Amino acid sequence: MAILKNTYFVQTEFYHYLCLVHINLLGKTALVCGSSQGIGKAIAIQLSKAGANIILLARNEERLKETLSDLYRSEGQEHQFLIADFSNTNSVAEVCKTLSALPIDILINNTGGPAAGKAIDAKPEEFIAAFNAHLINNQQLVQAVSGGMRERNFGRIINIISTSVKVPLANLGVSNTIRGAVGNWSKTIATELAPFGITVNNILPGATETERLNTIINNKSGKLNIERDEVENEMLAEIPMKRFGKPEEPAYAATFLCSEYAAYITGTNIVVDGGRTPCL
Fold first, then answer.
1. Phi–psi pair at 86, nearest 5 degrees
2. Edge-to-edge strands of the sheet including 106-109?
3. 2 domain residue, yes or no
């Protein structure tokens, strides 16, 4: 009976603690890449809810304006957007000149994945283009903002990658290859920046309801000449939770990693995939 009572006490204290957790990013400025749609947009919205000032970065001005209008401003947050084409490293380098002068506390590296297809069939230029879009651009952005982070002894860098960092995914040969490179790059800079109070982590989303997932399903349906529903059902059968993720779900993980509660978490992968990845 005493054990049960003590257990209840511990549980009560634990849930009480959870109720006290409040993520407050007031006064912080977050640069969110690929924020005109999908997971990037969801992260921008969640960070604004937590009080952060948001700088949106993508290439589609109209969509950026739509995202800008969806951001929260109840705490006096100030938001803006910049334009860069991640298929062109020079475009990103140019915007980095502006970013290096801004007090950016949080960097969300995120851009659309390479097209589906087998690695054996991919042309060398496909690998080069993906390497530039993901790793080289990430590197440029980190170099642009990390100087200020070091001066303030605070920074959060989060890379949105893929569960293929852990287990390669079928028919995503170029993506599997480049995502692995980004994962190891991330671990390296996490070690280098840790002494400055800067954390670097990766979020690995599984199949999430985005335009990219829609494209993958449509392409597979057309290539195999099968119904779209059949492709969806095959994908859902691999997910223990039997549903696709929502963009808000990796966004919640990103918001936590940006907070003070994650100050001792760095150099790691956070998988958000409904249990699909068959390893820890």
1. -75, -5
2. 80-83, 53-58, 29-33, 106-109, 155-160, 198-205, 269-272
3. no
User: Alpha-carbon distance 175 to 122, whole Å?
Assistant: 11
Considering the domain boundaries, does residue 59 fall inside one?
yes
Mean pLDDT, rounded, for 184-200: 98
245-274 residue pLDDT tens: 999 999 999 999 999 999 999 999 999 999
Domain count, the chain: 1
Show the tokens assigned to 208: 């999430």
Give the pLDDT of residue 12.
Answer: 52
**Residue 26 structure tokens:** 């007031």
C-alpha to C-alpha distance for 64 and 38, rounded to whole angstroms: 12
- Token duo for residue 161: 């990658």
H helix and E strand count, the chain: 10, 7
- Structure pTM? 0.91
Range 60-84 average pLDDT? 97
* Domain at 250, CATH number: 3.40.50.720
Amino acid identity for residue 21 in this structure = V
